[in-house]
Every structure is written in structure tokens, then in C-alpha cells.
Amino acid sequence: MSDEIAEWREIGSTPIRPDAPSGDSARYDPLFERIQAEIGKLESLSGGPVQWKEVIDLGRELLQKKSKDLLAAGYVSVGLLEQRGYAGLLAGLSCIEEMAESFWESLYPETKRMRARINALVWLSEKGGIAVGRKKPLPGEGKEVLACSEKIDLLEKYFSERLANDSPGLGDLRRAVGEWAREAERAEAASKPPEPSIQSVSAPAESAGPAIVAGTIESLEEAERVFGEAGDLIRRSADLVRGREPANPWPYQIARALTWSRLDALPVHTDWETRVPAPPAHLLDSGRLLTEQQGWKELLDQAEAQLPEYPFWLDLQRRSATALSHLGSTYAGARQAVLGELRILLQRLPDLPRCRFADGTPFADDETQRWIETDLLPAGGENGSAGSAAGSGAGDGKVAEARAQARQLLGQGEAKGAIALFQERISGAASRRERFLLQLESARLCLDAGYPKVALSQLDALQAEIDRFSLEAWEPALSLEVLRTSWRLLNQLSRDSEPGSSDWAGRAEAIYGRICRLDPVAGMELDRK
Q: What is the value of pTM for the model shown?
């Protein structure tokens, strides 16, 4: 590690040439253009993976021989993280530190283009934060993570001194590294030989306040202290067990019981908007990226690590449950533990999914709302909207049975088997209504399994049935379920697509109009999300 850091520190501090220590602008240099072509793949849906080794190699040559360019150094820093882990990130940040301290006045982008220089720092913070958020440190990388955290603090202080109020900081990167740094500190503390924390009654009391004392607890203050100390000890034990036995259900159950045990009322809110700080943007993005990349183990680890800090963020629960579903049948018990504890919380606070963080970010996004309705609440009986929509009429017992069997298959990672089960039941449906209900459940399952366009084709067919048989008049609740599911799906597709590439938003708006005509209250609820 020290050799690599020394190499990049030297690259950062060594002048390009005596007459121009920072060299020349690299904006139209072929090396820089090749680097940017690779970095551009981060925003492309079809450009393939970024070749980070090439970014590093080209960046090394550029920074050594042609230009002390802050943006190029940021690209290289993220590349070093991707290729060499946190030792690499530390090397990249050290290079930036040396460049800034040695060549601030002549560094590129030039001082006359200070906005471009600031944007280079913004890029490093945002993209670096996303990369860090999805890159769980390997065992043994704790020291490097802590060193990165310290280096970021030094850089922020330096940029603040140079740029004053114009400094953008490195907030996203700092928070992302800070998450792993806190975990590294906990792991280091857990690895130390434990000190006796529970004394037997016969043991001599050598100090006035042991961590946890056996015997009588005589005051509320003492009870609060013991509860906090014991809870922290139990949480660390659960973290250790989950790390070594990730399919074991009880760590998931214990973590949630401890986190939510004192949540007996909604946070103070105005029209459902609370004062609770929102999670940083990089955590929102990294969860979506890990899902797209099917990095289920990393997604699970990230969601579980964030639970104590964001107890109200219900998207984390969907992420954990989704990851556990895809990790296979051995994780089915762990998934049920997640669902069971969340179900208890929502029975206590049924309006929690309607709340929003202080910046307007929902506690439960559209995808999580749908997951709660279709995957969580139906198991609780009549409270689930999906269950109630499919819960009045002949054949509904068969629909519920098919839903339970299909969801079990999905929980075991058998998405195609679950969809095939619905197709078999649809073919053998005893009535048109039963077939309709099965098709709706099938569409929801396709959506949760990661096949949104398959789900959309089924929902379009159901809307055609609604129009053909005037079901909005005869089956308004069932029609509303179809329209609401379609609206959420179209909004999701609109967010995930490039601007102007499709008319998902227009279709969603048309569906929303139908919902408002059918049930204005339901439309008002959707308008808040």
C-alpha cells in the first residue's frame, strides 16, 4: 500500500516542466478524450462497463507528463478504488492533495475557470460516493478506510480555505466512506478481547459502575442505561453472527426489534412531511445500481448496515427482502424474519409509508409501496389492499393459494417458476373474474421479480378488459387496483428511462386521470407521492 501511495504522491507533487509546472490544458488532448470516453460509459445504458485499468494508465501518463488536471485526478481516484480497493482510493486522494497544495494557482481547470474546478470536486464527491457506497470493504481493509476518511477531512478543510463559501465540499464521498469507517471501528472494537461486562452476584465489586450489572435495577435511569448497553452488545453480537452466518434468521429479527422497539408514534409531520433528515443521494443511487447489477450480497450488506441510522426508511426493508429472495432458498427464513418484523411495525404504525423525509423524499418510494401492498400486507389478512381487492367473490381462495405458492417460489429465487405457476392457474381458471385476479397477481409478481415490461403488457391487457366490460362501474375497487399498479409502474419506467426516449410519463398521466375520476381520494393520495 505504501509504495502505491508514494507513487501517486510523487505524481501529484512533481512539476510537468520548469517553465509550466502544471503543464498545459488537457481538454483537447487525445489522452484526456480517451479517458472521458471511458467515464462516459457511467451514464450510458449501452456503452459497456468502464475499463478502469485504462482510465488509471491513461491518467497516470496525463498527470505525469502533460497536465496537472483536477478532473482527471478525480477520474483516476475512482478508478483506483474500483481496481485496488480502499488502498487505491487513498493513493488517488493523496495525489489530489499533493497537486492542490503544490500547484493550486496553476492547476487545471485554471483559476479563471473556477466554476469548472468546483465542478471537478462535485464529480469526485458524487461519483466517488456512489462507488464507495456499493463497494463493501474487504476483511483487512479497515485501516485504509479510516485513512481515507481522515484524508477526505483534510481535503475538505483545504478546499474550504481556498474557496471559502464557494467550496462544494466532498459531502457524498465523506458520508459514504464514513459509513464503512464506522463499521471498521465497530469491527476493530469487537475483535479486541472482551472485558468482563456481566458480574456474578458473588464477584467482588471493584468499580462503582460496571457496564451491565446483575442484580436489582432500582431506577428508570439505571434501566435506561442498562437497556442501552445491553442493546448495543446484542446488536454487535447479531452483526457478527450475520456476517458469519448470513442465512441465519435471528440477527435480522433482533436488529429490527432493537431498532424499532421504541417507535410507538409517527414522527412529527406537516401533511406527512417530517423533520427527519433524508438519506444522502449516493445511498439512493447505490441501491438502485446494485439491484440493476444483481449484486445481491452487497445490496443486503449495505441495507442491513444502514438500518440503525435510517430506521424510518422503508426502502431498506424492500432491498433486504429482495436480496434475500435472490440469494436462494437457504435465505428464506431470514427473509421471513425481515417481513415479520416489518409487518409488526406497520400494524403499530400503519401510516408510516405515507410519511416523507424533510426534503420530500418518501419513507417508501413507489416500488416499496407496491411491495408492501402485494408482498407484505396480504400475509396479514384483510389489511392488505391487494388482499382486499382479490378477496370478495368465488374462486378468491384459489387466487390467494396461488399467490402464496408463487410468492414462496419467488422468495426461493425461482422467479420463472412462480410466473409459470400463475400461467398454469390462469389457463385453468373457472371464471373470467378468477382469471382476471390471477392475471393481476401475475403482473405484480413480474414487477417484483424485475420484469417491468412483462408486467406492463399484462396490465395493459387487464385495462382492455376493464374497458370492454365497463368494470369501473361494476368492480370499482378491482379496477382501481389495476390502474394504481399501472400508474406506479409507468412512473418507475419514466424515471429509469432517458428523457425523450419514451412516453411513459404521458401514459402515467392518462392513467392518473382515470384514477381521479374513479376515486378522487385515491388520486389525492397518489398526488402526495
A: 0.43
